[in-house]
Known about the structure:
Number of domains: 1
Strand content: under 5%
Distance between the termini: 51 Å
Order of helices and strands: HHHHHHHHHHHHH
Radius of gyration: 19 Å
Structural class: mainly alpha
Amino acid sequence: MKNKIKPFICMVLSFFTMKAISLLFHFILDVANIPFNNKTPMYQLLAGICVFILTFIINFPLLKRDLKNWKNVKDKGKNIVLGIIIMFVIKYMIAFALAVVVLIIGGSVQSENQSVIEQLAHANPWLSLLSGTLLAPFYEELIYRGSMREYFKNDILFIITSGLIFGLLHVVSNTIFLFALLIFFATIEIFVDRKKNAFLNSVISLVVIMGLFFSLGFINPKLIVLGIDFKSLMLQGSMYIVLGIYLAWYYVKNKNIYLNMIIHAGNNFISELLVLF
């Protein structure tokens, strides 16, 4: 249990970096009496730089270790090219499947996050490329793969947790709810280590945690149970979840965070170009 305390703290700190920077920027602009708009290219760039710096500091030991082990990674070029190709195959297979589903049941497959990305790309292509290709892959891989893997030693649990949190973050704006979900899986990890009563203890822990958040007024139970459009969640979040699962599996397989950053950056770069041209 003791050897999980430090990784848990780093994971939680990493998880809240983006929200913390957003709140800080909101506060500073409010004090300066400047309208807050988090959907401009300049905001995305400045916020991305701040998150980049914070995640770098929090996860420096991991970055240092994987940089040292970089020379031991076999078939780097092959793994990188194959990783990017597979990500695109996954994206277009899911896109095709979702298009068929939409024709049958209706709905929209484009999330607000994707709409914002496209708006930013057209508003300022260079800033969008910089933040989307260099900054975002770096800190997202540290938050959702690197720091989580340091805590989650069970491969399957790590892959599921990383994929779900990464995917849902792109379509669910309630950070506290996502954090409760993270704590739920973190609790499972503890009991999986102990090899007994894992599921029951995890359910109990989730009930206690959610009850605490409800009592503090952070989450409205009706909003979660009744206010979520599960059809939109399924249509818009499925691609991100599957990509998150793939990236988590890729990290388990290759054991180097820099490989993840490179294929993530390559995927984002090509996606940005496709949006522009």
